[in-house]
User: Fold this.
Amino acid sequence: MNAAPAAASGLALELRDVRRSFGKTEIIRGASLQVKPGERVAIIGPNGAGKSTLFNLISGRFGATSGEIVLNGQSIDGLTPFEINRRGLSRSFQVSNLFTRLSVFENVRCAVLWSLGYRYAFWKFLADLRDANERADQVLEMIKLDRRRDVLAMNLTYAEQRALEIGITIAGGSSVILLDEPTAGMSKSETSRFVQLIREVTTGKTLLTVEHDMGVVFGLADKIAVLVYGEVIAFDVPEAVRGNPRVQEAYLGTALAQGH
Amino acid sequence: MAATRDADRYYQFRPYNVGRWIVWGGFALVLAVAPLVWTSGFAQTMLSQVGIGIIVCLAYNILLGQGGMLSFGHAVYSGLGSFLAIHTLNGASAGTWPLPVSLVPLVGGLGGLFFAALLGYVTTKKSGTTFAMITLGIGELVWSMSLMIPEFFGGEGGVSGNRVVGKGMLGITFGPQIQLYYLIAVYCFVCTVAMFALTRTPLGRMLNAVRDNPERVEFIGYSTQTVRYLAFMLSGFFAGIAGGLGALNFEIVTAEVVGAARSGAYLLFVFLGGATFFFGPIIGAVLMVIALVLLSELTKAWLLYLGLIFLVMVMYAPGGLASLIMMNLRVAAFGKLRRLWTAYLALGGAGLVALAGAAAMIEMLYHLQLNAALGPDMPFLGATLDTHSPDTWFGAVFVMLAGVGAFELARRVFAHDWGLVQEEIEKEIKRREVAI
Assistant:
């Protein structure tokens, strides 16, 4: 829906030597990354490596101090979050970020309105917007909340809120999806079901996800980017990352060896 | 087929949606019949003010209830609308502008819209506390301007006009109060429908989203600033219409219509009525007129009572009267209201006792301050109180404390019963869900 013309490079998302400082501390220290359309990338790294900061830079919550971020062939430097979203990138949050006093259905419908071109219309009734209503119900079925359609978001269970978080993120049809620890706080059985759900709703899309759970990482990702102290020290298919001596040394050796 | 059923569900605004027709028909009927029931001139004046109040309170609630914007300066837009309307009226009287009187309120609306577009651009750049502070600042700014530009604001005397222009059409000159009332009623009905319709549009819904979570709104493609700005302008438009009707109603506009007291009244009564439901401000508007017209006649200390009521509401019913009504309707719908009656009676009785004690003290204090020349005796609720005797004061304190104590006891019992009833309702809802 928001498919912008792909550039000659054919990349969905590219980070070129992105840096970001808070005061004197440089948190992101020259991160570079090239993600092709349709790729599923997991960003892993120890606590404080800057994973969430990197997501905030890509989604426009903060501006980068230097470097360039290119989305679907267009630079998104200095754009606001809503401008970046309109160019086809959507993100979820680590802590559920919902419209708490609106129903589940309304939450999702809000998220589809812009992409369907309704903008700030105050001369059209929501009830008459067939495409928006159908799209919202379709998303509710995808995230399996159709039976909870009219419940207020604040009255959902934790796992349901996480699902709605994903639903709002994908509803607008963005081609690049950023998920910030989508399974945080979930039980093991919930997590495996949720990974399946994420796979389904992001089919055909470019996916970046920050994740701590190695099971989720290997279940979801085509490629893994390892972020350590604000730098991408490795970016490759899981097998290659696992064997990478730099990665093992820096952070992952033990976790990977134990995990798989 | 499932698809057609789904489609039906979306089309809520249908001609044969009976419930909605009953509600709106009832509203129109009340507006039409009210002056036939209360026929005195005084009642007509009050009803006219209620109609104006409903528009302005609903307009204010676009900001407070729908958009989560706490404005301390909304009288600026209704007030400037009033001034533009009265100048237009005078222009029409002088024959400068051939505009029918019935359209003068629209000029007020456009004035409100214009100033909301101008000043709101700055105001809505920020949200939360900063927004509230800017509205306060702009309110003060316009208030001080009103003293500096007497040509427009009319100085201390204000600007007066005459709403009877020429011969009128079909004998309707809007001279008699009843004719003006029906003009106000028509505007009130149309504006209420329009503002309700707004809550059913993409902008209206995104305004709710901005209220709930402005951060997330930015990540689904919307600029929170634009949403707030558009809502602010629409609110200014309706407030301006109310201001224009006010100018026709009073035929004089003084600087106090843009003042902080007026803005504060909007906030206070919309809150009392209930900002979380669309119809809450309508209750608030009725209360506003009752308080400003009747209560102020009844006692000099009316502002103090108003403050007390506001305090109690903020503490015990932050959702206002509308949410109290809706919560009790829910309990009634599950057939459990009977179990709360005794607790309500106890609460009401204790509250009245506490109020009587407090009122006795307040009135005695005012009597001593303002009516000392009339002697120490003061009539109060059919009795005569000696304001110089310590016994009376002790008595009043005792009555009040007894009332407060009883209220607190009743409140605890009530809170317990209420909790039980709510639990049962939740269980019932769960049970029904499973049954489906």
